[in-house]
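Reminder to self: tokens first, then the designed residues, so the page reads top to bottom the way the pipeline ran.
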């Protein structure tokens, strides 16, 4: 795949011409889509790029989730638990991959096996030892420890099933022409564009649109302008600052399970001291951020889990025994975030002032996400502002808490390793779905909050732009679906 320079990408985002073909109403019925973030990992499904493949309806999973987060059939027509450690999934018959090969239990087992050996491993498999074996028209998935959420795990876009031709000997994965969805990915131009055509051999209802023309436009003002000018039919993640400038008929605001959190480095630097972490917590006025940066289009956080999960607010109890704050007295810290989400640099500026008012000396670092993630995960900053989806992977928050806050978590920006947190997360992971699991999840949330390793500030709402010519685009709080087989232009 070819990659255009960052200069070319910036020009594309700002000028738009050359990113989209002129005109909003093409006669060929192709949907023009402006997306927030370019691919980070060559569109490998084992990374967060998987959610692009899912939102384009090109790669599919064995299981899907309904609006309530319950498991529903996908490429598997059904499943049953055959032992404490094993589940059997019946593979949907009559499905072909975009390369013409058949969906079989062996192909499913191949994808799942490769996911377990990928480096890094898909986030949904953090802490999970899993094997997959074909068994006639079914695949048997076995876990080392009893796992009540195996069906929900297999709904993660990071475990999308691709043809065997997608997987290379060097470990790279190429999703071009290897999915099963109603749209076939036919070309990717590095970090600038992607092209998908309708797949007429799809096993389900034929796609209403003839194809999708994707442009990656990190600049939020440019994405909003693309809707106003007719250069795009759909724009994801319209910045709050741009929402008021769009025709109300072209925007949708959906509460989402996404939390804007300040992660504090508990392993190195000043925030090894919990008293200083407590001082940072007390310094933050989240209501000021919601009013001033998000223009009221967000909710002040009471915990890691927000109003998109109503049971969290209903079951949460006030925390006791919080650590006492230590006066910062000029302690120098580095506060970092990324520019891909337009609000985050503004949040960083407000936080910098609030922390300085509390006595910290703050240096700010802002880069594009692709150029800052590695340093953030390596613990090179004292504090990091992250906009984080909390039920992105399985529809269940345990995967998020496990990934972000346990000793072995693969996305542990706070560098947290706390025995009580790990124990609480293990308990939640082992509890059957239902009210008891939800209570265990809230206990794990409380354990994390007591460390002050993460300070949840607000819960975001997704703002999506749709031209008035668009029919039936998905408005998905989990950001898994966007253009479906039924999405079309009038």
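Designed residues (490 positions):
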């Amino acid at each position: 795949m070819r990659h255009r320079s960052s200069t070319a990408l910036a020009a594309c985002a700002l000028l738009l011409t050359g990113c989209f073909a002129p005109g909003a109403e093409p006669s060929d019925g192709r949907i023009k889509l402006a997306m927030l973030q370019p691919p980070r990992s060559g569109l490998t499904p084992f990374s967060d790029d998987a959610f692009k493949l899912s939102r384009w309806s090109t790669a599919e999973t064995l299981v899907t989730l309904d609006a309530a987060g319950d498991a529903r059939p996908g490429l598997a027509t059904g499943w049953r638990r055959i032992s404490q450690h094993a589940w059997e999934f019946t593979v949907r018959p009559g499905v072909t991959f975009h390369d013409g090969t058949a969906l079989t239990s062996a192909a499913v087992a191949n994808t799942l096996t490769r996911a377990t050996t990928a480096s890094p491993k898909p986030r949904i498999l953090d802490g999970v030892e899993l094997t997959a074996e074909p068994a006639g028209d079914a695949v048997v998935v076995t876990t080392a420890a009893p796992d009540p959420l195996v069906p929900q795990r297999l709904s993660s876009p990071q475990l999308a099933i691709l043809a065997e031709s997608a997987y290379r000997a060097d470990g790279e994965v190429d999703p071009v022409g290897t999915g099963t969805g109603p749209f076939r990915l036919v070309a990717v131009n590095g970090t600038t564009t992607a092209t998908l055509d309708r797949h007429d051999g799809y096993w389900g209802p034929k796609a209403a649109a003839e194809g999708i023309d994707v442009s990656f436009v990190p600049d939020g003002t440019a994405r909003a302008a693309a809707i106003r000018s007719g250069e795009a039919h759909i724009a994801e993640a319209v910045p709050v600052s741009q929402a008021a400038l769009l025709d109300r008929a072209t925007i949708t605001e959906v509460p989402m399970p996404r939390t804007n959190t300040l992660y504090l480095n508990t392993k190195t630097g000043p925030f090894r001291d919990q008293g200083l972490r407590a001082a940072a917590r007390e310094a933050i006025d989240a209501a000021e951020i919601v009013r001033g940066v998000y223009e009221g289009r967000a909710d002040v956080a009471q915990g890691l889990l927000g109003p998109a999960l109503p049971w969290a607010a209903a079951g949460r109890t006030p925390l006791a025994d919080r650590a006492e704050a230590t006066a910062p007295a000029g302690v120098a810290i580095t506060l970092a975030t990324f520019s891909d989400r337009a609000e985050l640099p503004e949040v960083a500026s407000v936080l910098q002032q609030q922390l300085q008012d509390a006595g910290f000396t703050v240096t700010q670092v802002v880069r594009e996400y692709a150029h800052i993630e590695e340093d953030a995960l390596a613990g090179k900053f004292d504090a990091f502002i992250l906009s984080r989806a909390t039920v992105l992977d399985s529809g269940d928050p345990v995967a998020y808490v496990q990934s972000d806050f346990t000793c072995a978590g693969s996305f542990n920006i706070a560098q947290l390793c706390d025995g009580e947190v790990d124990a609480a997360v293990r308990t939640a992971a082992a509890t059957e779905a239902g009210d008891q699991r939800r209570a265990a999840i809230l206990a794990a949330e409380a354990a994390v909050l007591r460390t002050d390793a993460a300070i949840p500030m607000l819960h975001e709402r997704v703002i999506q732009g749709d031209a008035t010519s668009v029919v039936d685009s998905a408005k998905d709080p989990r950001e898994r679906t966007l253009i479906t087989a039924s999405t079309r232009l009038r």
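The two ends are 34 Å apart (CA to CA).
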